[in-house]
């Protein structure tokens, strides 16, 4: 009989009386290892620039670092376990300290006018594009 709450033991493996599909899911969870801490991102070209959304549920603003270096936008997250959590007697604890970095290359990104906001677990970074100034001077021919 299936339960409503997914079971995970200390090592991330279910008891042997589960289905083959559950066992396969457990193997995939263990194989993904550190990559499971990575966060999803959406990148949209708005015409005048880019809007990058990183979904960071459970992360505070102070744990996020955003950099733009020669067109490479990096979003880094480092969440550390709080001291008060270490002293509690958990029966099961699934949230752990982690760090993850995601990056994307935006070839025509401008450092001027760059902005970021964090609300409801979503980091939104607005990156304007470099505006090419056309210094074209029409020369009349005599």
UniProtKB/TrEMBL annotation:
SHSP domain residues: 32-142
A family per Pfam: HSP20
Superkingdom in the source lineage: Bacteria
Entry-linked InterPro entries: A-crystallin/Hsp20_dom, HSP20-like_chaperone, Small_HSP
Similarity section: Belongs to the small heat shock protein (HSP20) family.
Designated name of the protein: Heat-shock protein Hsp20
Organism encoding this protein: [Collinsella] massiliensis
């Amino acid at each position: 009989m299936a339960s409503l709450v997914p079971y995970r033991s200390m090592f991330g493996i279910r008891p042997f009386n589960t289905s083959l599909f559950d066992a396969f899911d457990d193997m995939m969870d263990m194989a993904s290892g550190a990559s499971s801490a990575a966060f999803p991102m959406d990148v949209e070209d708005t015409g005048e620039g880019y809007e990058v959304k990183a979904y960071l549920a459970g992360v505070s603003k102070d744990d996020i670092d955003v950099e733009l270096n020669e067109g490479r936008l990096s979003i880094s997250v480092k969440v550390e376990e709080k001291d008060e959590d270490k002293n509690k007697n958990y029966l099961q604890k699934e949230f752990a300290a982690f760090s993850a970095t995601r990056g994307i290359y935006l070839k025509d990104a401008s450092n001027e006018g760059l902005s970021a906001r964090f609300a409801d677990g979503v980091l939104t970074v607005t990156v304007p594009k470099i505006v090419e100034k056309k210094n074209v001077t029409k020369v009349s021919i005599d």
